[in-house]
From TrEMBL:
Catalyzes the conversion of dethiobiotin (DTB) to biotin by the insertion of a sulfur atom into dethiobiotin via a radical-based mechanism. GO terms for molecular function: biotin synthase activity. It comes from the Bacteria. The keyword Aminoacyl-tRNA synthetase does not apply. This is Biotin synthase. NCBIfam families: bioB. Residues 340-355 have a biased composition (Low complexity). Residues 51-278 form the Radical SAM core domain. It catalyses: (4R,5S)-dethiobiotin + (sulfur carrier)-SH + 2 reduced [2Fe-2S]-[ferredoxin] + 2 S-adenosyl-L-methionine = (sulfur carrier)-H + biotin + 2 5'-deoxyadenosine + 2 L-methionine + 2 oxidized [2Fe-2S]-[ferredoxin]. Keywords: 2Fe-2S, 4Fe-4S, Biotin biosynthesis, Iron, Iron-sulfur, Metal-binding, S-adenosyl-L-methionine, Transferase. Pathway: Cofactor biosynthesis; biotin biosynthesis; biotin from 7,8-diaminononanoate: step 2/2. The gene is bioB.
């Protein structure tokens, strides 16, 4: 019996390029077809990544106080979100935070700082942190996310030991002016291309649930395909109170799965990460989504809390996957730090507000790792 999505997987495995018609068919598939979509996308995921899951760990080096006006961001200019705000972490604190994630199984550490882009002094500061991190953990990948880069900065980061650079496109070019007025879509594309030309692995993704149409989603994903992004984080809007998109709840768990499947069909060989907002939007479908995505962030995000780190690791193991680079499943150091009365990894209630991060970087409380 002919199965459209299995046929689509066959074509992608044979080297075909996903068309807009096929992309829309994935996004517009019915609930009755959802498991067919997952099964077909899973064939691509396993062809390139088998049953491994890459665990990434975020370290927020500088939080809040950003001069940009991105509507989705809790760190934006004029944000009233009650997030942690602090200037640059000291190198020793940044390394300690990174070490917590590495001990819990992270094979990539993502060093992130708010702002439009770094000064040369900022780049030197991060380069020093990377040098220390690589000295202690030589096999760990480092991804930097510092904003729009100037001439020479990508090359300096590469020379310091940075492996990858993240700068998300976030949405389609046609919609970009609706979510930000302080820089342009082309600035983001240029930074990713600059990073690539310096020998850094390009990491670029999107944020979904901001009111975009299916056609906008397809355009954004195809732009990422055109950039040949090695790693594609898919973020699901966290509508912080105090931002222009507060109260915006447009996604269902099933649609989030379809969006991940679209990215997998369009970019079969890319590392696809179910990133920020997965707990509140995928909810109980997170384990199912691991059949499509092969990567996630462990524990908390930049300004919000994720599910307990141990719950992430348990979810990976329970779904039949293994943490990349690990033998026996690692134990999260943060498992004992969580309220014993809470249900680890319990799905977030629909419409629940993002939990503001009050632990880890910039605090005296142990991180969720």
């Amino acid at each position: 019996m002919f199965n459209y999505f299995q046929d689509l997987a066959d074509r992608q495995l044979s080297g075909a390029t996903l068309t807009s018609q096929d992309a829309l068919a994935v996004l517009e598939s019915t609930d009755a077809q959802l498991l067919d979509v997952v099964a077909a996308a899973s064939r691509l995921r396993r062809a390139y990544f088998d049953n491994s899951v890459k665990v990434n760990y975020l370290v927020n080096l500088k939080s809040g106080l950003c001069p940009e006006d991105c509507t989705y961001c809790s760190q934006r200019l004029g944000s009233a979100a009650q997030i942690l705000k602090y200037t640059w972490l000291k190198p020793e604190e940044a390394l300690a935070q990174a070490a917590s994630g590495i001990a819990a199984g992270a094979s990539r550490v993502c060093l992130v700082a708010s702002g439009k882009g770094p000064t040369d002094r900022d780049v030197e500061r991060v380069a020093g942190m990377v040098d220390g991190l690589k000295d202690q953990h030589p096999d760990v990948e480092v991804c930097a996310c510092l904003g729009i880069l100037k001439d020479g900065q990508a090359e300096r980061l590469k020379a310091s030991g940075v492996d990858a650079y993240n700068h998300n496109l976030n949405t389609s070019e046609a919609r970009y002016q609706d979510i930000c007025s302080t820089h342009e879509f082309s600035d983001r594309v240029r930074t990713v291309e600059h990073a690539k030309s310096a020998g850094l692995s390009p990491c670029s993704g999107l944020i979904v649930g901001m009111g975009e149409s299916n056609e906008d989603l397809v355009d954004a994903v195809f732009a990422l395909r055109e950039l040949d992004s090695d790693s594609i984080p898919v973020n699901f809007l966290m509508p912080f109170d105090g931002t222009p998109l507060e109260g915006t709840w447009l996604l269902t768990p099933a649609q989030c799965v379809r969006i991940l499947a679209l990215v997998r069909f369009a970019c079969p060989a890319a590392e696809i990460r179910m990133a920020g907002g997965r707990e509140m939007h995928l909810r109980s479908l997170q384990p199912l989504a691991l059949n499509i995505a092969n990567s996630l962030f462990l524990g908390d995000y930049l300004t919000s809390e994720g599910q307990p780190g141990q719950a992430d690791l348990d979810m990976i193991a329970d779904a039949g996957f293994t943490v990349l680079g690990q033998g026996a499943p690692p134990q999260s150091a943060g498992a004992s730090m969580h309220d014993a009365g809470a249900s680890p990894g319990a799905p977030v209630a629909p419409g629940a507000l993002p939990a503001i991060r009050r632990r880890g970087a910039g605090t005296t409380v142990a991180p969720n790792a």
